[in-house]
Design brief:
The protein is an alpha/beta fold and 389 residues long. Helix content is 48%, strand content 14%. It has a seven-stranded mixed beta sheet, with helices on both faces.
Length: 389
Amino acid sequence: MTLFAAILALVALLGTLLVAPGMAKVRRLHPDPQDLDAPSVAVVIAARDEAETIEPALRSLLGRVGPATQVIVVDDRSTDGTSEILAGLQAEHHQLQRVRVDTLPPGWLGKSHALARGSEAASASDWLLFTDADVVFEKGAVEAVVRFAEANELDHLTGGPTIRTASFALAGMIAAFGVLFGLFTQPWRVPLPQTRSAVGIGALNLVRRRPYLSAGGHEPLRMCIIDDLGLGRMMKAGGGRSEFVYAGDLISLEWYPGLAAMMRGLVKNAFAGVDFRLAAVVAATGFIGLLLIAPFILPWLPGLSLTARALAALAALLLVRAASKAAERSGLPAASAVVFPLGLSLFLVTLWRSTLTALLTRTVVWRGTAYPLEELVAACEAAPWRRFR
């Protein structure tokens, strides 16, 4: 057990030495409220039953972008009042364009189809900014991301938002996500063309129109549940230059209203996050359980030597420090890192619930539509970005 504790401390130390300097290299963007003269850009949003969040999100855009920016909302079979809200906003703002989807074509996921329709409606724009219906933009945010992408000759830019939450437990789980994100995606390596690192965040996915269309638009993503990550993989696999940034000063959102809602919401895509591979779920469980959760358990086990307890405690402290940094990057209290091991445990519960639900029912349910697991798996296997797994 002393040897195991020493390994845990060494792994935590090496992980800290790898991830911390890397995350420090990630650049942070700031809005310029005085500069609203963006290059040609269309903001594309897929909305289905978003009546609770879409109005403040759209008002933040429509009131804080320059007159040349186009805002396209694809109303994807909404039945909750979203359509009426959009009609009212369109009467106030000429920049807002609505596209209505009444029927989902076979072989498409709803969101991917909606974003494809939105990109088609933005035929005159040099840039497409895909975002979600609950994201609030600061004044000058859209212009800032486009100018940054142009200045750095990027074809794809994605960024992490500030996440608003009133739940301390939920903040801890998001901090756990932040640690796993840094470990497994290594976002500071995204700009390096020879690496496998590729990232896409649904809150902010900016693409240059020409390489996006050359890569197939949203057609290759038609059955991709994690379409935002798929977009980042697709753009990099197609030879585009990509970068991940901290965008918390530009955009914010309330990801989920509570911990239970987050766990329910992630059931649809946790298994998809590992490309529906059971072996990857088992491997992730072993890695997280043995290397990230065990350091918090070992110091309390009876019969351990003082040395083993101290080494395990050192590993736990290093992990808590990493979680506090991840929380701060998402705009959350650093203190939420104290529930980091609980967040990891709940993530594993969600991952296995997602996995078993898909394997037992042979379907994945998203937004009220059931999709056959075989079709989703086949789409993953055929994806052109498989080398970025």
